Amino acid sequence: MKKLAWLLTTIPLYMACTPATDNASQAQLPQSTNPSADNIKAGVDYHSFSNPDEVTVTHLDIELTANFTAKVLSGSVTLDYERQTPNASSLILDTRDLAIERVTANGEAVDFNLRPADPELGAALEINLPQSASQVTIEYATSPQASGVQWLTPSQTAGKEHPFLFTQAQAVHARSFIPLQDSPQVRVTYNATIHTPPELLAVMSAANDPQTERDGEYDFTMPQPVPSYLIALAIGDLHFKPMGERTGVYAEPALLEAAAEEFADTESMLLATENTYGPYGWDRYDLLILPPSFPFGGMENPRLSFITPTVIAGDKSLVSLIAHELAHSWSGNTVTNATWRDLWLNEGFTTYLTYRIMEMIYGNDRYRMEAVLGYQDLQNDIAALDDNDEILAIDLRGRNPDDVFSNIPYEKGALFLRELEHKVGRDNFDQFLLNYFDHFAFKSITTDEFVAYLNKTLVADYPEQLNEERIQQWIFEPGIPAGAPVPESDAFMLVDQARQNWLAGEKAASDIKTAGWTVHEWLYFLNNMPAQLSDEQLAELDSAFGLTASTNNEIAHSWLMIAVHNEYQPAYNRLYNYLVTIGRNKLVKPLYRELSKTPEGKAFAQKAFAEARPGYHPLTIKANEGFVE
Ligand code: BES
Ligand code: ZN
């Protein structure tokens, strides 16, 4: 009975989670050309309850106080809006686990209704708009369990003395700390005032003043309109160090120097990207180094990318992450996916740009190695995923975008663009991208709008080289089209040779000439080992190369995957330590998944997870708890 009641309150809402009406602008959008999903409406955001077609929010004034004892952000947001339909009488916002205290317009209370919550998408907040008003103020507080906020105790930080808070809004979590139209097709400018304990500094995805007085009250402005998933806040014992004219890093004191050295090439990356794809549109580009529980590698919050500390390797080997988050300033933040189905427009273009930036800064050999590693990740996903999840313009109806994270939008998207580049020539393709970023600047676009633009421009200019069917195949069909580019690396051929010689017993591990190997060669060496290795072989590798003790988190990850698969016990202390100190989901999830395959592995995973859980981000908990049940 109870279960039925739950179904009745949740399912119908979830199924109906589309904007309330199809307004003129959405109706004009081209219909999806995906034959297997022709009833998907391009441009409809299936992950927001909001009604931007009727009333569009254009600006936010946020005022919040961070209470680290209660783990609550409380205060108000004032939303400026424009009516799209003259008689629109209600504004529908997204919320999740918010306590809504009061809604006012022109100083007077207005009626609102918080609908029952959907477990994945939260609760729609319906506000009755008085005829005369053009803004409403909502007083509210977040929940300590807010899915988009992580509150860390001092012991979970590098300095161990001060607490830390950070938000992560993408894909659908901004609604857990601000009631708003939480859809990437709605762009807002924002101002914010954040109150913190006086010894801490707040930073946001907005104009940050590195010289600001540390007094517990911080003001921010974001003058360019951004989608809600790019609104971000962090608070901690943060300090700033410049890296270049427009670039710098915020971090806890213990990490500041190391981070500034590791990411010293950020300014050159910025200049190189501008040279190729047009001016950087966001004024400064700074990095914020988060505690290790940050669930992603990086997040492209405008003007201030959020970065995991797990890439501070000491040798710049993992800085493609910075190139990636920087590239989003063009692909993602300037031209934005209109719905989560169109995520590949953000991530595929960004992955393509990442490779190009890495080549410009570090040369062709490194680019080739990174491209092969990315291609292998893609092939592994294609081997494992259902057909529908291999489609760039993916059908996410009824699913939480968080649960569908894969290399498809990234590496398949990038490979598609690489093919276009090869067909029309690099300079011509760069010119196309430059025009594209300019044409759609500060717009949120659908896959179909991109295809229409591509057909009108590049395909029309190069009819001999390009054709529309091939493009349709790339975007709307699973797998990799036959004849697609295949990345290759000479350096890796030598690694293949070394691995084979060792596996055949022709060469001892200690005789492999690894002196000149970069992290990429190590990753390729390890990732392409056969599934089964004997204890003797594992011990030989470990003693020759000190793999269990590797301080490079990516190498350690690849090695630990092998160790778990082969139940190589000498690595398990390291494994335990890795799982309880790192919360980056890409690094820990595959380990939990692999561990969960045997009863002993599962027991080990349960122990590590129980210890790690209080320090994990809500997204990392959600992504892994299934493996330890
Ligand atoms: N924007 C993404 C992270 C993201 C994507 C969060 C979808 C939520 C939903 C970010 O730019 C990203 O791609 N991060 C990667 C970086 C990697 C591919 C270099 C990551 O965190 O691993
Ligand atoms: Zn990205």
UniProtKB/TrEMBL annotation:
Known catalytic reactions: Release of an N-terminal amino acid, Xaa-|-Yaa- from a peptide, amide or arylamide. Xaa is preferably Ala, but may be most amino acids including Pro (slow action). When a terminal hydrophobic residue is followed by a prolyl residue, the two may be released as an intact Xaa-Pro dipeptide
Keyword annotations of the record: Cytoplasm, Hydrolase, Metal-binding, Metalloprotease, Protease, Signal, Zinc
Subcellular location: Cytoplasm
The protein's enzyme class: hydrolase
N-terminal signal peptide: 1-20
Pfam families in alphabetical order: Leuk-A4-hydro_C, Peptidase_M1, Peptidase_M1_N
Cited PANTHER family: LEUKOTRIENE A-4 HYDROLASE
Name recorded for this polypeptide: Aminopeptidase N
Lineage of origin: Bacteria, Pseudomonadati, Pseudomonadota, Gammaproteobacteria, Alteromonadales
